[in-house]
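Researcher: Let's try something more involved. This one mixes different molecule types, so please make sure each is placed in the same coordinate frame as the others.
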Amino acid sequence: MTTTTSSKSATAPRKLSLKENYALMTRGLGWDPTYQSVDKIFPFDTFEGIKIHNWDGWEDPFRLTMDAYWKYQGEKERKLYAIIDAFQQNNGQFNVTDARYINTLKLFLTGVSPLEYAAHRGYALAGRMFRGIGPRIACQMQAIDELRHAQTQIHTISHYNKYFNGLHDFKHMHDRVWYLSVPKSYFDDAMSAGPFEFVTAISFSFEYVLTNLLFMPFMSGAAFNGDMATVTFGFSAQSDESRHMTLGLEIVKFMLEQDPANVPIVQKWVDKWFWRGYRLLTLVAMMMDYMLPKRVMSWSEAWDTYFEQNGGALFQDLSRYGIRLPKYHEVAAKEKNRLSHEAWGTFYNYSQAAAFHTWVPSNQELDWLSEKYPDSFDRLYRPRLEYWREQQQEGKRFFNNTLPMLCQTCQIPMFFTEPDDPTKICYRETEYRGEKFHFCSDGCKDIFCDEPEKYIQAWLPVHQIYQGNCFPADVDPTAPDFNPLAEVLRYYGMNVGHDSGDYEGSPDSRNWESWTGRPASPRDEVEPKAA
Amino acid sequence: MDSVDKFHGQQLLYIGWEDHLMYCAPLCIPVNPQTPFRALTEQVIPSLYPEHPDTPKLRWDKVQWFRSGQPFTPDPALSLVENGLGHKAVIRFRAPSLSGINGSCS
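Model: All components are placed in one shared frame. Result:
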């Protein structure tokens, strides 16, 4: 490369105004193609039926140019990694309440962190699909944000993996393990839709409507329980998240303002992705009520505050476009007093096949649950937890050794109960192409019935196991000593007895006591084990 | 699609025990379609719920059955298929006198 000697007489280029700079570094990055038609270059932003008459009607939600973006993100990264380094050097992992808390992290890091990477891919894809430069830039920035979040969380996995079990191969597990198919299939569903549906699903329904229910309990839970690494990550991600929420609201308003024919399509997606996201948050309900040794608020309280109040106000605003509250929001309200108990019971049932531990809460914790759930806990859930504890003390820790029936849409075991009767499992079914399909709810059934060709392809872990697709390659299923469950766990990459099973007596809990000198769970509750 | 041809001669059967949610969800098992219904009650189902204190108290002649949610009366001598239970059929049973741990439907 050569440079020409600049003439001293030439005037220095005029510095661009902020506004000019902004225009050039956002919209100015697009161009009008000449060799191919726009429709041929962007074939995927029309098939969903969304009509856009004027792409310039897009309001940039981020108010950021690419050059400023790199500068801000670089500063955030430097601060974050300085704190993470300090955390690691000071053995910050031992400052958490007790090692039960780590199981919350395990579930988050194996269930949610891979979704950050999936989101990175999804936004890169959506960015390529939109013909309008505004949404393309927004998707590009979010794709990079999501990659950053994935990387940060993988560093966290790497650190905790040195001290605690179950985090050694999150990528392998994400593609195989039965409960991880729930978050994985949720994102696969979004990514295999069109770009408008993807952004509505993730940016609006998840990030805007539901994200507070994930980040608030998770980050405040981390703070309450002494996990400063996660709190720091939370702060670092927070400004990104608020941009993402803005994108969610902008995409929905943009579609609604462009053409009245878009309204019913958007409403259908809002209904679908509210329900898909809400089902995914079942895991959060269980974290809040059962897995945080120091609790922030109950799931029921969080749902009241963050969905019924805040979400209610949002949908009030959107009603001027003809958008109403998502279908089945009233079912979610009916389920708020039971969701966490049903979910925790399920993981307790199948703890031998999960890469984190479960336990019966201490008496004090049971009392907290009674207080938070006065109408349901003592009547329906406490008796089974106390029975399980008795059995365990007699050396007969309960496990369910038969695989559960799964919902075809959300892939969660069918433990959800009838909206008006928490003692009856909710069964829904339909027939398609001569085959029966089963669902946990009307919400999941409606989603299937709207796009059956999509959901009949679901990779349901239980069915895959029975088809023989979940054994390691070296296995001989005809061998006399063939043990299907053990082979499935080997296929999952689980280290039985270390990653899985009850918390009490686990290597994690024993290590915690020997490394920190502190009890692995509230001491007054630990009763002597049966001889 | 998880059609019956993929299950090596077996078909899937889903089984739920009403009012007994200690076993958190209905169970899914592969079965030979020619299995007599009697084998379900005599062998299969008790082996699925070994830890429940109500399992030894089950009296099969008193049990109410549901097929896809509708009451039905199985013929114990006939096979599953002859009882109208094809691939991915769902059956539930309810023992009117049993309501789980301390009556909690657990």
